[in-house]
Amino acid sequence: MSSKYSGINLDSDEEEEIHPNIDEKSYKEWKRRQREQKRRELEQRLQEINSINDPGEEMIEEKNEIERILKPSYVCLDTESFRIPSEDSEKDYIQELEYLIVHNELDNFIELMNQSKINMEKFEVVVLHNLAEQIKEGNDAGGLILSKISLYAKYALSHGKDFLLKLRAQLTNKEKKKQFEEDCRKDFEETKRMFLEEFGEHVSAKQPSCPEQ
């Protein structure tokens, strides 16, 4: 059973490589604010659980999961994970991303990762850059797809291949598949809100063209 906190990572991104088209300072500040907001939410939830006199087993498991996330972690990924360095340091992963935009189910992501050498950190940056562009353009449909792909990449980085395989098995259940799609939508809406709050003054609203008279 996958946790509702799966994929959350509060570690710093100091060593993350930034796409050349993204302002590094603004991007890192945006990511930092995302982490801090999530940290505050988790700390608040932890306080709520600790205030309950007799929490049930499910709530105790939730508490343990939150405490694990809040504690600084140093994850060692084995050879079965997707964290594989690319032989081509200049690879831009646009071809892989274009494929996943059309074929964006988890099966497609796993298959592509098995067949290609992917530096997942760089790939995630490419996805986030394109997600930001879709938000700026007001393209929610494209943004939602890219948000889903970014979740796949985040899960691959933080939990590895085994987690994705377990998640794929879970998603064969129609109700869980529906819930996952809803979670993806909520994640996109939250990302969009935070992006517009941070960069809203620099984003020109996409105006509808006037029909010819």
By DSSP, the count of extended strands is: 0
> Which structural category fits the helices and strands?
mainly alpha
How many domain units?
2
How far from one another are the termini?
58 Å
Strand content: under 5%
**Low-confidence stretches at least 5 residues in length (pLDDT < 50)?**
72-89, 204-213
Q: What is the general shape?
A: globular
Report what the structure shows.
The chain is an all-alpha fold and 213 residues long. The protein folds into two domains: 23-71, no CATH class; 89-201. It has seven helices and no strands. The protein has helices spanning 24-50, 57-70, 94-102, 106-115, 120-137, 140-170, 174-199. The N and C termini lie far apart (58 Å). The relative contact order is 0.13.
